[in-house]
Here is the input.
Amino acid sequence: MPPPSQPPVPPPPTAQVRRLAARPEERLLDEVDLDLVAALQLSPRTPVNALAEVLDSSPSTVARRLARLRAERLLRVVGRLDWPLITTENPRQVWIKCEPGRSEEVARHILELDEVQTLLLTTGSADIYCSVYPLLGTDIFELLTRRLPGIPGIVSVESQLVLRAYAMGQVWRLHRLTGEQTDRLREHAVPITQDRRASPGQLSDLERRTLRLMVDNGRIPAADIARELDVSRSTAYRTSQSLLESGALWPRVEIEPSLLGHPLNALMSLTVLPQAIPSLLDTLGAHPSGRYVSMVAGSASVIHYGVFHDEEDLARFITTDLGAFPEVTRVDTCVGVRVLRRHWTARDGVRLGDRSDGFLRSVLEP
Here is the structure.
């Protein structure tokens, strides 16, 4: 008698299937939500009626979706201030090693520092990564040599000076809209047309108060600014437009990339032959994974902070995209295991927490 037939062994699930099964947060947004996020990333201040027209939806649907995303703390549009308004010099990227088992304790202490813009718990050659901005009034030497290393549980601190930033978080986006939709949205974006980089001392009292409102709400309309500040609507419009056109403030969409199908954070320190740095920076700055790409002074030449679909996506990036540059002589990768802060905004998984307003005090308060 022949042996009973065995049921066929199913093939192993693909990486994408495993990822979707393991990460229910990626199903918190449907296709309509994703289109809306992509549109806001292109032009964060586009009015609801215009968003609805571009996305072939109704204004009530777009308004309802926006309200839900805000109420559930999944999305927020804020304003990013130009560096000279808040810093005395360029930022540092900082890598921290901790005593075994103390990374989370150390991270909680680091989050008390107003200068820390972004913080991740990582695995690899460092336990913690953070970006540090020398805010007005900060003694950066004292911060990096005494305040940070003095936190109990820290074994070592390595900092790298950002020389040039080629990509930053506010320009990272989903690529899911058509070329026609993209062009129509860009008509609503405010281009930088003024050759003026403001310093805190050049801001008027009205500009300070307007920036405060726009930092908290990057979509705030002129009518709301006028009501809050008790000025005319035309004055509020001129002031807000001037701040946008001068680049004093950039509207920025805050949303966790894992909601958008990019749950894997990786920070790569690249050692590169000097003559190849400009070409590599151009390539990485345009790469869809790049959230923060910079040239640095330190043990590495270039830092690529990328977000990826899964491990295979990261592997392809390292072997194919970086592999196309033989001038890259070393790749040191740290993987983010938990994001605790981005752009001064706390993270609770995919939910947005409170903002640390310490970075605003010196420039926006009299």
Confidence is low (pLDDT under 50) at residues 1-22.
